[in-house]
Specification:
0% of the residues lie in helices and 53% in strands. The protein is mainly β.
Length: 329
Amino acid sequence: KNTNVYAVIDSQYSGGTHQTTVRKYSTFAIPDWTYTFPGEFSSPSANSLDVQISDDGTKIIVYTKAFPNIRLTTFSASSGVILSEVAATPFLIGNPAAVNPFSISGDGSTATFITTNVIYFIDLMTGQQDYSTLQGTFTGGAAINFDGSRAAYGARGNQPGDMGKVYLFDRQSTIDYILRDTISLIESETQFTGLDLSDNGNRLVGAYYLGNKFGVKAWDTTTSTSTQLFNYEQTGSGNLINFALDIVLSDDPSLFALGLTGDGVGLVDQIQVFMIGQTGPLKTFATRGSIEELDFSPNGKRIIAAIRGQHYTESTLGIYGELNSYKIV
């Protein structure tokens, strides 16, 4: 996946405005190309800037926000030419979700975009859009499969004591999505923070938390009623909220990995690797800070993790982060 294709996005404040630039690399030396967006954009935050790469490495998709504009721009990874640009503002209902509002399908054709009120399904080439009103409150977990034919998001109810749920959608035509299944957690007040779908959409994994307890589940989604395959929970002992910032399936998809914020005392390792069918983690790795993002190598034998300098809830000003590789097998 994404062989020798890397992309970064940043916003710099100069002359009273924020200028947003995306850079594409094939090595870690100098960028192959750069593109600076015209006009002013928001200062960087969890829901204002994002860049993602299609699985084959041919497309780079950039999400930028500057009130009242939401823009999804698709670049050719090889040349830097803009292939398409979709403005979501005329159709936008609600503000972008606070955490992880944007994700793309593996082939780079379709995006999901979540606001406080709706989930959008957007064809990145034609600009066609469909949306569904959110059930409950979005809590950070969203996923879409390789060709964009299946998507999911996690939420909890709006009332005290409501339990977390996953809403699974299927595409019926070009950009027409309908609700396929609703999966409920048993315990009240739980919140989903991460989801991932296999390329064919037939396996779903989800991460959730309640206080200092985190949990992971896996489901077979082949039929219209999803079947649970895996469940694991662990409780930390610190005073920091320990939840997943990322969860990802391997390509096959027999493994999945969880990146946690950490409990603050080191009882729970921040990286946890699971195999469907086992009762607990296959491997765990302790890190000095919270996991921002992680992914498997193409052969599934290593985990690559972006690590904060401290816990997610603590300031990292002046403290460097890390990009590390961990051997699983």
